[in-house]
Design goal:
This protein has six helices and nine strands. It is α/β, with parallel strands linked by helices. The N terminus is likely disordered.
């Protein structure tokens, strides 16, 4: 384990990923474990330090993998990096498409209600049908790597992160803990049936009371 604290090591060095296929998940939470705040999204618990990490990880990735529910809740906008929408319903949030948008790729299943409409919207080359009634996330990762997207970043949400962990797709979990206590009832960074995924702490950085950790799956 390496613990890095101080200005002498750049965040780019801290978050440099190995060469080759690598999927990391980036999530923010409060000290008491909430992944959202009073407005029901992460925007009310993140801060300037978290935003720096968020932007850096996007810069370092080839494609961003996000669940459709999180895309809608967090009101994602068009992004120059490819966005992979994971959706069992096969429906793509319309806000992702527009000026400055990179490729939008749908990862869905053959039973999805919105499959036909999304295929017409995005084009068949941008729709991956991965299973019949649930999205095979391991196949998704393999197909994205085959397309040249070797460095992958998942930004959640909690259900998707839980499923990625359950299906053995995650190499790294990056967590930002902001110095807040919010109490109340809020989701954690993972949500769903139990999983057992041991992690190893690789780096820990503190700035202005915010803790930024890199964990790799054992």
């Amino acid at each position: 384990m390496r613990v890095l604290i101080g200005p002498d090591v750049s965040l780019r060095e801290v978050y440099a990923a190995p060469d080759g296929p690598w999927l990391r998940a980036n999530m923010v939470s409060t000290v008491d474990g909430a992944s959202t705040g009073d407005n029901g999204t992460s925007t009310s618990i993140n801060n300037a330090v978290d935003q720096v990490v968020f932007n850096l990880l996007r810069e370092l990735t080839d494609a961003i993998v996000v669940g459709a529910g999180t895309l809608r809740a967090e009101q994602y906008r068009p992004n120059p990096k490819p966005i992979v929408v994971v959706s069992r319903s096969g429906k793509v949030p319309p806000g992702l498409l527009g000026p400055g948008s990179g490729p939008v790729i749908l990862a869905t299943c053959s039973a999805a209600d919105g499959l036909a409409a999304s295929t017409e919207l995005l084009g068949a080359d941008n729709v991956m049908v991965l299973g019949s009634h649930r999205v095979d996330l391991a196949r998704m990762r393999t197909e994205l790597v085959d397309r040249g997207y070797t460095q992958l970043l998942s930004e959640g949400g909690p259900h998707l992160l839980r499923d990625l962990l359950d299906q053995g797709c995650v190499d790294e979990v990056d967590t930002t803990t902001t110095p807040l206590l919010v109490c109340g009832r809020h989701p954690r960074i993972t949500d769903g049936p139990p999983v057992d995924v041991p992690l190893a702490l690789r780096t820990l950085v503190e700035q202005d009371g915010t803790l930024m950790a890199r964990w790799t799956t054992a």
